[in-house]
Amino acid sequence: MAIDMHVLGQQAKQASLVLRQMDTEAKNHALLAIADTIDANQAVILEANSIDMEDGRKAGLTPVFLDRLNLAKRLQGVTADVRRVAELPDPVGQEYEKRTMPNGLQIRKRRVPIGVLGVIYESRPNVTVDVAALALKTGNAVILRGGSETLKSNMALVDTIRRALENAGFPADIVQLIRDTDRRYVSDLLRLSDYVDMIIPRGGSGLHTFCREHSTIPVITGGIGICHLYVDETADLDAAVEIVHNAKVQRPSVCNALDTLLVQESIADGFIPRVAERLAQDNVELRVDEQAAALLAGAANVQPVADGDWDMEWLALILGIRVVPDLATAIAHIQQHGTAHSDGILTTDPVSIERFLNEIDSAAVYVNASTRFTDGSQLGLGAEIAISTQKLHARGPMGLEELTTYKWIIIGEGHVRP
After folding, report:
1. Is the pTM of this model over 0.90?
2. Of the candidates 9, 67, 101, 339, which lies 20 to 30 Å from 228 by C-alpha distance?
3. Does residue 237 share a domain with residue 211?
4. Same domain? 22 vs 169
5. For residues 305 and 324, what is the distance between their CA atoms, to the nearest angstrom?
6. Residue 392 lies in a domain
7. CA 264 to each of CA 150, 293, 300: distance values in angstroms, whole numbers, following the listed order
8. DSSP string computed for 345-392
9. Residue 26 is part of which domain span?
10. Same domain, yes or no, for 109 and 135?
């Protein structure tokens, strides 16, 4: 049966108006109900997920996609994130930038929900719960459209969430799922401007481009990460080896994993073989330039860099390595090949640190740390709805505040403008 997208939009809009009336205590109660209900229904959810996993294997999904799809080791962490969101301060209703004008008018801004969010995403069913939790806390209804490979998992999760919402006295239509993988519904969602206030795509560059080109609704883009680390001659090389290893290996299939390592020429002889040996323990394949290749002659899992490799988001145990003469060359490389996601420098030179922070205009810029921290939970936001790499409204992990807008509050005492 065809889905009437206008009905979904109307239901979401109406649910958002009811949700605006709910106070923080009620929203937190609903969040805890969602976490408890998911915990109580783990068997049903994981059974649906196992069917998606088996279908994915039969369809030839890569290990990267299967890792993203798998809820078996993640579901408890997902509900823990929901509970953390319940503990976080509620941004809705916060007032700031208060002032009194010379004429006595009292001016301030108040945070308010955006309204209805349309979220289009691929592969990761945990996103279903993250988005639902963040939307609920910030007073937003949401229409979800997941990938075909996660349909059964998403249906089980959304059914559970909607049941928890109803039991907590909230409209179930705060969270709705497009339960059909026909691509026409993506196009329909992008044109629901009468009901939907913001589109958030989470997926590859093709999805982001499609949304930007076809949406009549504002689009927040991001999540594509070609991430870099630059190691200079003043760095603590013992620490640098472990930082590089963590950034590449800890979870290679995500957007904040390391893609390209840039090494200052003066330390390349000693550092590159060390880091290659460390990465070889986890079977990381290296794509290297001529100078690095000369230092790794005879090593396994080493290939010369090919055209386009510097522009690859690997999402796998593959790392590009380039030797550069200085910081300026490293910065130029990142500016040319990066996606403004997460980039870092490993150094003890304060001048280099300040220059890197000033000239690298990424959503998250690191000094002596792994890029893997670009994550809402790791940065104290609870769950996140996306990693924004654009410059308007929100950048980096989009937590609670990023899912609100504001209104001006002007209070007078019979004021009229002269």
Report:
1. no
2. 67
3. no
4. yes
5. 15
6. no
7. 43, 15, 23
8. EE-S-HHHHHHHHHH---SEEEESS-GGG-STTTTTSSS-S-EE-SSS
9. 5-220+398-411
10. yes
382 occurs within a structural domain: no
Say if strands 342-346 and 404-411 run parallel, antiparallel, or are unpaired: unpaired
What confidence score (pLDDT) does residue 375 get? 87
Q: What is the pLDDT of residue 68?
A: 85
Q: Does the residue 192 lie in any domain?
A: yes
Compute the distance between CA of residue 386 and CA of residue 119 in angstroms, rounded to an integer: 10
Q: What is the pLDDT of residues 153-190, one digit of tens each?
A: 999 999 999 999 999 999 999 999 999 999 999 999 99
Structure token digits, residue 274? 């060390």
Q: How far is Cα 367 from Cα 369, in angstroms, rounded to an integer?
A: 6
Q: What is the mean predicted confidence (pLDDT) over 129-148?
A: 96
Amino acid making up residue 207:
L
Q: Binning pLDDT at 50, 70 and 90, where does residue 65 land?
A: confident
CATH number at 55 reads 3.40.605.10
Q: How far is CA 415 from CA 103, 165, 170, in A?
A: 8, 44, 40
